Structures are given as structure tokens and as C-alpha cells.
């Protein structure tokens, strides 16, 4: 007695089809699961045995072999409980399983289905594999239903799926909810007093997707400004929305009432976070899980007290800032996660925070200041497009009425306009913003006029810029030109871009 049905497995943020083959033969009673199962998969034997008895079915008394194919790919988690359960019933001819459907889900001892991670990537993989339907826990149905072109059925109990297969009781097809929620207007740039120059810099950063470092004394508003940056970012495209949602789904951060990301993610890890938590990982025997870098994909990664992060954590930024992805190698396998985010950093000018303040006196020695700034290596600083000095506010600025500044909605309109210009210009290359322009294309799309070229040449020789800095300045100038609705990059755009580089601000 042999039965085969479809299931799915996860590898990174992508899923792949798994064939669950069940064979019942004569001989001494045994229950073996093969196909590189981990401990959770092997333990499904006991969950399935109890669930079958509690659902009123007799457990087969012969030799049971369950094969999870492809057999050379490691299988993880309890999501194979449901297909193994149904496979045993199909092998015993108790039910007839839908051949063009996939089944995933963890079972309780009573047969109830428990929520799982990775519902959306599994539904997308099932659709790509040509399956017509997918059955999974009801808590994950609204998330999976965002995969167009495949019927999604959510069940609370295995008996519901059995009744559906027998035609006794039909399970309603799940429908997706609203993908784009209304923006939270609680954080608005209008609440920030003063700091007009910094607001302009953040507008440029948002328009081009550029990384930015805010350097200033305590209380100058660095964190307040950074936390309002998402309010001026453009809405995610459908592709970006799905990609970010898949990462959060695999990480287990979605819920039944929030089945899909509606806004760009904003991650703010504490400076005590480890490099492994930023990059991603987990137990050496299991496949790596996404870290903060990947959870911030298509959004913002805010690193407050930047120099206080561990050196290994800081240096781990190099690959995502350069390639937009992280590759994690473990004993169980190697996984690559997308990690293209806007890096927003905040730091004080010294350890006490008051170096260069017009009134407060700095208590740090020159050696302490040098040592504090040296925690940021040259290669890391070179990968940050903008370094902005955030001055302390004057009394008149603090005493001014709140709500008189420009609202985030007005700034966001200009940002979306500039992004649209960049997207249309780079449509043939599939590039969404200027910060993503690869080095070979910088000369073609960001070339300045003669006066601008002379200006950047002078700065290159005077400041000792690197080739990477040169490219980043040109990308930055291209963004300033887009905000100015200028077809070409002029000297005034180069001048503003050079001002944002702030070579003297942190060195």
C-alpha cells in the first residue's frame, strides 16, 4: 500500500516542492521517516500516531516507511505532520487525496493544526510547481492567499480536511486582506523643531536610498529624525512587498491580523547586539534564519550609538552595504538572504557627547576622542554616502511653536517624484533608486557637466577621496539633480553632494 502527496519545504526565504511518499507493508510494527529529516520531523511519528487515534482512525500495525523527496535536502520543522497523517490514511485507503494540492502544517495530539512560518513563500512555490491548491493552518491562510492563482484553504483541524476530501463538508477558500494599510501619522517631520539642513539631507537620502550618518550632541534630535524617516519613504512595490513579507514570514514575525507587511520595515537593534544576530544564523545543525540586516530589507536599519557597536558587528555591514545580501554558512547548509536597506546611523562627536558644543564643556581627552572615532573603520565610513553634522538647537528654535514645520506627506511627495524619475531612467536595468546604480553605469547616468567635473576633481585631490567615494558622490549628486528636476548633473548638485559627504565630521 503506497500513497504519495505533495508538501513543501523551506530553504532560506524560498520554498520547494517535497513529495511525501508513504508505504505500509507487512512485518513487525515500525515507523521510519527517511529523506534527511531533523529531530522535529522524526518526532512527527508520535504526533501523527496520537492524532490518528484521537480522530477515530486505527493506526496501521505493519511496517511504515515515509520518504521525503528530494532525499538529499535537509527537512526541518513539524510542517510535515499533516501530509504524513494524510499519507497514512491514503495508503490505508481511508481517503482519496487531491493529487494537485499541497499540504503543510503541524498537528497537535488531538489533530488540531498549529500555525507555522513561511506560509507565503510556500504558497508561491506551490503555484510555481503547478499545484492548484494548498491546505494549511487557518491562522496562515490570509497570508498565503496573497499568492494569486492558487486556491488556499485554511483548516483548524485535520478532520476538516478529511471531510473536504470526502465531500462531506467544504472548506471555504481563503481571501487576502488589505495589503496597504494607512500610514501611521503619529511620527511626522512637522513635530521636529529646527534642523532644516538635516531634514533636507534626510529628504535626499530617502529620494536616492542613500546611507546616512547623523553626528551631533545628545538632545539634538538625531533619533527623533531617524525614526521619522519611514514617513517620507515611498510605498513598496508589489515585488518589494512580497520579498519583505517572505523574510518576516520565515522569521515568524507575522500574525493572523497582520499577514503581510504594509509599510517598509524599520529595524533598530540595540548596540549590544551580536554580529550573528545582525547577519542571521541559529543552531549549527539547522538552516540559518534571517537576522536584522535581512529583516530591514527594502526598509531602514537604524543603528543608534553607532561607535558603541561591537567591531565584528560593524565590520559585518560590509557585504550588505556593497552587495545588498548576506550569505550565511552553517553545518546544515549555506543560505543567502536579501539585505538591501537604508542604513541610518547616529553618533555623538565624542564619548561624553559635548565635543565642539558652543556652551557645554567636553571632558574627554584628545586621546579619548581619537580612540572613540577610530572605532569606525575607513572602509565602513567609505560605504556611508552622507555624513551630516546635527547641531544643538538654539533656545529660539526650541521655544518655537510645534507643528509649524513641513509635514511628512509634503516631503514624501517630492521623494516619490524623484524616485519615479530615477526608476524611469533605469527601467532597462531594473534599478529602483540611485543608490543601487552599479559602478560601471555611474559614468553613463551620473556624469556631471564641465563645471561640476572640475569641482569634483578639485575635491578628489584635496580630500584624498577613494574610487568608491567618487562613485557615491556622483550617485548622490544624481539624486539632488532629480529632486531639482534637472536632466543633467550640474556643479550646484556636485557641491551639495560634497557637503553631505562631510569628510571632516567623523575623522
Low-pLDDT ranges: none
Radius of gyration: 27 Å
Structural class estimated from helices and strands: alpha/beta
* Annotated CATH architecture of the domain at 2-166: 2-Layer Sandwich
Cα end-to-end separation: 73 Å
Largest sheet: 5 strands, parallel
- The neighbouring-strand order within the major sheet is 11-14-17-10-18
Q: What fold name goes in the CATH topology slot of the domain at 2-166? A: Ribosomal Protein S5, domain 2
Class of the domain at 2-166 in CATH? Alpha Beta
What overall geometry do the principal axes of the alpha carbons give?
elongated
Give the count of helical stretches.
21
Can you walk through the features of this model?
This protein is an alpha/beta fold. The protein has a domain at 2-166: Ribosomal Protein S5, domain 2 (2-Layer Sandwich). It is 37% helix and 17% strand. It contains 21 helices and 18 strands. It has helices spanning 39-42, 44-54, 81-91, 119-128, 141-144, 158-166, 196-208, 222-227, 238-250, 275-279, 292-295, 311-315, 318-323, 366-373, 378-382, 395-399, 408-425, 439-445, 450-463, 467-483, 491-501, and strands at residues 2-11, 14-25, 30-34, 63-69, 101-103, 106-107, 113-114, 133-137, 151-155, 212-215, 266-267, 280-281, 289-290, 300-303, 325-330, 333-338, 342-347, 386-389. The strands form six sheets. Strands 11-14-17-10-18 form a five-stranded parallel beta sheet. The chain has a four-stranded mixed beta sheet with strand order 1-2-4-3. A three-stranded parallel beta sheet has the order 5-8-9, with helices on both faces. A hairpin with a 7-residue loop joins β12 and β13 (289-290). α7 (196-208) packs parallel to α17, α19 runs parallel beside α21 and α20 (467-483) crosses α21 (491-501). The longest helix has 18 residues, at 408-425. 45% of the residues are buried. The model has no long low-confidence stretch (mean pLDDT 89).
Amino acid at each position: 500500500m503506497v500513497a504519495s502527496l505533495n508538501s513543501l519545504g523551506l530553504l532560506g526565504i524560498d520554498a520547494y516542492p517535497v513529495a511525501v511518499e508513504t508505504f505500509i507493508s507487512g512485518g513487525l510494527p515500525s515507523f521510519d521517516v527517511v529523506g534527511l529529516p531533523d529531530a522535529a520531523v522524526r518526532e512527527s511519528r508520535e504526533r501523527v500516531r496520537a492524532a490518528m487515534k484521537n480522530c477515530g482512525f486505527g493506526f496501521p500495525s505493519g511496517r511504515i516507511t515515509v520518504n521525503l523527496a528530494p532525499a538529499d535536502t535537509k527537512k526541518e520543522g513539524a510542517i510535515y505532520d499533516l501530509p504524513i497523517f494524510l499519507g497514512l490514511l491514503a495508503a490505508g485507503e481511508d481517503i482519496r487525496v487531491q493529487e494537485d494540492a499541497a499540504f503543510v502544517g503541524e498537528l497537535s495530539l488531538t489533530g488540531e493544526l498549529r500555525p507555522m512560518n513561511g506560509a507565503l513563500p510556500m504558497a508561491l512555490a506551490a503555484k510555481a510547481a503547478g499545484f492548484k491548491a494548498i491546505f494549511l493552518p487557518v491562522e496562515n491562510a490570509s497570508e498565503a492567499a496573497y499568492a494569486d492563482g492558487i486556491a488556499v484553504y485554511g483548516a483548524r483541524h485535520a478532520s476538516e480536511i478529511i471531510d473536504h476530501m470526502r465531500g462531506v463538508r467544504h472548506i471555504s477558500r481563503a481571501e487576502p486582506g488589505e495589503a496597504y494599510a494607512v500610514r501611521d501619522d503619529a511620527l511626522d517631520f512637522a513635530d521636529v523643531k529646527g534642523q532644516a539642513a538635516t531634514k533636507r539631507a534626510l529628504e535626499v537620502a530617502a529620494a536616492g536610498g542613500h546611507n546616512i550618518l547623523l553626528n551631533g550632541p545628545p538632545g539634538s534630535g538625531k533619533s527623533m529624525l531617524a525614526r521619522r524617516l519611514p514617513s517620507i519613504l515611498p510605498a513598496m512595490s508589489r515585488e518589494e512587498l512580497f520579498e519583505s513579507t517572505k523574510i518576516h514570514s520565515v522569521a515568524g514575525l507575522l500574525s493572523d491580523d497582520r499577514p503581510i507587511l504594509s509599510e517598509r520595515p524599520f529595524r533598530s537593534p540595540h548596540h549590544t547586539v551580536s554580529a550573528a544576530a545582525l547577519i542571521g544564523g541559529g543552531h549549527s545543525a539547522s538552516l540559518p534564519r534571517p537576522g536584522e540586516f535581512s529583516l530591514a530589507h527594502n526598509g531602514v536599519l537604524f543603528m543608534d550609538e553607532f561607535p558603541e557597536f561591537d567591531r565584528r558587528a560593524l565590520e559585518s555591514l560590509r557585504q550588505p552595504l556593497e552587495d545588498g545580501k548576506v550569505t550565511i554558512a552553517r553545518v546544515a547548509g549555506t543560505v543567502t538572504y536579501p539585505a538591501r536597506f537604508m542604513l541610518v546611523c547616529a553618533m555623538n562627536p565624542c564619548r561624553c557627547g559635548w565635543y565642539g558644543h558652543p556652551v557645554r564643556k567636553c571632558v574627554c581627552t584628545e586621546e579619548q576622542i581619537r580612540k572613540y572615532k577610530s572605532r569606525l573603520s575607513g572602509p565602513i565610513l567609505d560605504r556611508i554616502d552622507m555624513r551630516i553634522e546635527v547641531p544643538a538647537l538654539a533656545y529660539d528654535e526650541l521655544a518655537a511653536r510645534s507643528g509649524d514645520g513641513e509635514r511628512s506627506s509634503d516631503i514624501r511627495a517630492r521623494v516619490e517624484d524623484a524616485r519615479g524619475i530615477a526608476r524611469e531612467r533605469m527601467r532597462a536595468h531594473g534599478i529602483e533608486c540611485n543608490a543601487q546604480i552599479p559602478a560601471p553605469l555611474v559614468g553613463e547616468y551620473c556624469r556631471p557637466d564641465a563645471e561640476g567635473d572640475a569641482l569634483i576633481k578639485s575635491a578628489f585631490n584635496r580630500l584624498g577621496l577613494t574610487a568608491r567615494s567618487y562613485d557615491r558622490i556622483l550617485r548622490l549628486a544624481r539624486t539632488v539633480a532629480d529632486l531639482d528636476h534637472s536632466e543633467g548633473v550640474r556643479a550646484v548638485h556636485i557641491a551639495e553632494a560634497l557637503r553631505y559627504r562631510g569628510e571632516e565630521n567623523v575623522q
